[in-house]
Amino acid sequence: MKFERFKKIIEYNHEHQNELAEKVRNFYLQMNFDYEKEVLNLMRIVKPLFNEKKYFVMEIPFKDREIGAICYKSDSFGYTFLNSALPKVKVNFALAHEIYHVLYQKDLAKKKVDIYISEQYLEQKEELSANLFAGILLMPTPSFTEMFRRFSNEQTVGDSYITIIAKLMSCFEVPYMSVVIRCYELGLLPDGETLQMLLDTDAKTIEEMFTQLWLNEEILYPTKRDNYKRLEQIVTDVGMRCVKEEILDDRTIEKVLKNMKKIYNEIRG
After folding, report:
1. pLDDT of 111-158, one tens digit each?
2. Smallest Cα–Cα separation from 79: which of 222, 231, 224?
3. Of 52, 194, 201, 231, which is the most exposed, with the fewest CB atoms less than 10 Å away?
4. What predicted TM-score, i.e. pTM, was given to this entire model?
5. Mean pLDDT of 65-86
6. What mean pLDDT comes out for the span 45-66?
């Protein structure tokens, strides 16, 4: 990431930190979790919440590796598709990003489709807010700060700041750049050469650090999980009930399933 973009992100985050932190606390409250102590397993708990909002959330391996997620709102239901062709850490961040859009973005219903470009940190206000929300949600200040200090104390001669970043990535299962941004939001790392070094670090270096530290490398790779069959079954079951109640006919259900399959094939490639 270029320094100027990074600087703008940090400035925006400092300005809106309190506002988005309050939304995150509200989310934790809805989930009956303690913001001061707990780190959420989002994929496990978010589906029931999305169902309450009439949203389906599922993973599909996209052919486009730049898209992290697609959030679509129809007149009746919403759909959040996460790109499981990306590393698990990026899918986690994409889900947290989309939680903001589903729960807190008022104009999403008017937009119909929201596309999250993985780790690009687009400069639109709502995208910056969604990324800030995701960062606070996945890396709560109390636990993140505590783990940063613990990993700092473990440093030995010859260790670099990348060692700390890698351990934080493993602990919170989040992308590299999201950890770097969170560290600078909270004033945990120095500027200057250290920042430039962190911004210039590539994926290969991170993978090597995970191997060297015996960290869980699986979170750096895609799961390629595909939930489409489950979605198709849900729509089929609902359709059969509607046919039985004479709300819809068989041809309409077949058309819906055919259109769904067409869209799925275009996304998956």
Report:
1. 567 778 866 666 788 899 999 999 999 999 999 999 999 999 999 988
2. 231
3. 52
4. 0.91
5. 85
6. 85
Give 184-187's long-range contacts (Cβ < 8 A, gap of 24+): 184/6, 184/10, 185/10, 185/13, 185/14, 185/17, 185/135, 186/141, 186/144, 186/145, 186/148
Ordered strands of the 78-83 beta sheet: 55-60, 78-83, 67-73, 113-117
Output the CA–CA distances (angstroms, integers) from residue 229 to 85, 150, 234, in the order listed.
17, 44, 9
Amino acid identity for residue 239 in this structure: G
Please give the backbone phi and psi of residue 220, each rounded to the nearest 5 degrees, phi first. -90, 0
Instruction: Please tell me whether residue 107 adopts helix, strand or coil conformation.
Output: coil
- Write out the two tokens for 235: 């729509």
Report the alpha-carbon distance of residue 48 to residue 165 in Å, rounded: 32
DSSP 8-state symbol, 178 = H
Taking the C-alpha atoms of residue 211 and residue 221, their distance in angstroms, rounded to an integer, is 13
β partners of residue 67: 117
Show Cβ contacts of residue 109 under 8 Å, excluding neighbours closer than 6 positions.
Answer: 73
